[in-house]
Amino acid sequence: AGLHPGVNPSKLPLKSFVGNVAHSNMGAGLATYPGAGYNPDEEAKFVDMKIYRNKGSGVFFHNSGLLLIQGGTFADNRIGIDVDRAHSLRIIGSHIVGVTPSFAESVSSSGKTGHCPSMYPVVGVQLHSSPVGGTTASGVILQDLSFEHLGEDTQCTGSSALGVDPNENFEFFDPRTSVSGLLFDDYTSKLNLCPAVDSGINVAIEDKDGSLDSSTGFIVSNNAEMTTFSSCTAESDASCASVCGNTCLRTLSLSVSSLTPANLQLVVKEGAGDAPSISLSGYFNYRDWDPYWNTRSHFTRRFFVTLPASGSYQAQFMLDNTPTWPVFVERSWEDVDGCGPAFSLDIDENGSRNCDQLIVNGDAEGNSTEGWWHTAGGIEISDLEGGADGSSFSFSSQFRDYSSFGIAQFLDTRCMVEGRTYMLQASVKLVDQDGSAYTCTPGNNQIAPCPSAHLRSRFGTTNPVDSSHTIATMDSWTTGDWNTMTGTFTVTGEEASAGSVLLAWHRTAAHVKVILDEITLSCVSGCEP
After folding, report:
1. Contacts of residue 279, Cβ cutoff 8 Å, sequence gap at least 6
2. What is the 3-state secondary structure (H, E, C) of 378-426?
3. What is the DSSP string of 428-439?
4. Across-strand partners of 88?
5. Are 407 and 369 in contact (CB under 8 A)?
6. Closest residue by Cα to residue 171 from 305, 286, 37
7. Which class for 55: exposed (0-12), middle (13-18), buried (19 or more C-beta within 10 A)?
8. Of 322, 301, 333, 313, which Cα lies nearest the Cα of 133?
9. If residue 122 lies in a helix (H) or strand (E), which one and from where to where?
10. What is the percent of the chain with per-residue pLDDT over 70, rounded to a whole number?
11. How many Å apart are CA 328 and CA 298, to the nearest integer?
12. Which residues contact 478 (CB under 8 A, 6 or more apart)?
């Protein structure tokens, strides 16, 4: 980077990569690892490779995208091609062999150890649940591939041509993943989803020409979440897959507050009353040891809803069998340009609400940051400064490396009614990084600006579009004392239709602690239900 400023090797074009050979490695023959992987700005082509007899994977694509494997032979690897968090990948015209008879004989006669027998299967192509979708990614396309010796003759139980990594579940499996023109010899098991199904992964693979079964449609995890609303037939107990013939599946993601409990469920029905339903769990990478991570406003709990195209469905969030509302619900179609028209999902907005007062836990007197996030830097309870009006606690920002870092709270979107007016009030104090009182200058000052509060409206979740505007600033400032911030705003049509609305404080100089207390956001006009 020092010699070539502005150059990012993980984005550079591959140029020519043809006829390369990799064998006898302790790990993978070819890997895009570690970290962010390889994501070039144009499709990178790996052509006619010969990759064989590696202890790990033949190819290990990690956190990478926009790649093409064209042709080539992959043999005697634990996994022929491992698609590890990779996306927008095409594998075309390749020949994949699990355990060749010659390799098995060589291992047996030499007394050395090969891949099998083992408790781990040999897999031709291993797919993966995905952390990304939308417009920045797409699924994996497998086309005109041939598979040999990927079954029980490997002496590794559960071996198959296709599998899904069970060890990491992002709850989303891209339904744009497809197969066509696949050929299998008599020694090969086509598909084994059992480990993935046991891990709760809802697989959806479009079979464009009946390569995996006799009909076109989708191959899915054989569970209620994937088969309740489609006409599906279980393929076999050994594969844990169902075939949903002549079906198009689409996936909608819903993002909700990360502070919602892990047992929050989304119940989806097609019809009213006692109509069949499914219950979906959300995904949030919660870290017991890391409150900074858990309260960043950037992160959400995500639900991925995969349903037949064109259908009409109803949904409700439930917590301990009681209807609830998770503060906000952002929506994005994960499979942009999917196989068919979108389905509709009407989400019930039942659950307790208080639109007269939108702020939750505005005084910190419970010695808790419950209900609060931070845009970055962190949030903590301040007992050194105490609270306003002689109270014990207040909220304090942490590690404000940039002026944009600050304390934040998502607002109940059900209360964002166009034309309704709210008033924000908050007590504010500033402390410099050396512990002394900090002096800011009110007004449009760039040298020592005072804090301001703004609303951020967001549309979508995977590739969101944001808009922001300021709702409160400081009119005056008394150093070392509690100062009052006041402002009003009237809900716009944009805010009323947004997936989420975030109230956040920012603009104070970096490294200055912003202490907040007695925060209220009260309805003052148009408050009728």
Report:
1. 265, 266, 267, 268, 318
2. CEEEECCCCCHHHCCCEEEECCCCCCCCCEEEECCHHHCCCCCEEEEEE
3. EEEE-TTSSB--
4. none
5. no
6. 305
7. middle
8. 333
9. none
10. 99
11. 14
12. none
CA–CA gap between residue 397 and residue 515 (Å, rounded): 7
User: Tokens standing for 259?
Assistant: 């502070």
320: left (phi over 0), alpha (psi -120 to 50) or beta: left
C-alpha span between 505 and 417 (Å, rounded): 23
DSSP string, 78-102: SEEEEEES-EEEEEES-EEESS-HH
Summary mean pLDDT of the chain: 94
Query: What is the amino acid identity at position 348?
Result: D
**If DSSP codes are grouped into helix, strand and coil, which group holds residue 389?**
helix
Q: How many CB atoms lie within 10 A of CB 154?
A: 24
Question: Is residue 400 within 8 Å of residue 408, measured between CB atoms?
Answer: no
Tokens at 435, concatenated? 């512990």
Residue 369 is predicted with a pLDDT of: 94
Give dist(CA 253, CA 172) in Å, integer: 9
Residue 1 in this model has a pLDDT that exceeds 60: no
Percent of the chain surpassing pLDDT 90:
83
Q: Per this entry, what is the length of the chain?
A: 529
Q: Which helix (H) or strand (E) holds 210?
A: none
Tell me the C-alpha distance between 319 and 305, whole Å. 18
pLDDT of residue 75: 98
Strand arrangement of the beta sheet that strand 146-148 belongs to: 21-23, 50-52, 73-75, 95-97, 146-148, 183-184
End-to-end CA distance of the chain: 58
Q: CA neighbours within 13 Å on the CB side: how many for 51? A: 35
Which value, to the nearest 10 degrees, does the dihedral of the CA atoms of residues 7, 10, 13, 16 take?
A: 120
Considering just the CA atoms, what is the radius of gyration of the chain in Å? 27
- Give SS3 for 105: helix
Which tokens sit at 231? 């006409």
Residue 487's DSSP bridge partners are 424
Q: Is the peptide bond before 308 cis (omega within 30 degrees of 0)?
A: no
Q: Where does 184-223 have alpha helices with state H?
A: 194-198
Provide the Cα torsion 304, 309, 314, 317; round to 10°. Answer: 0
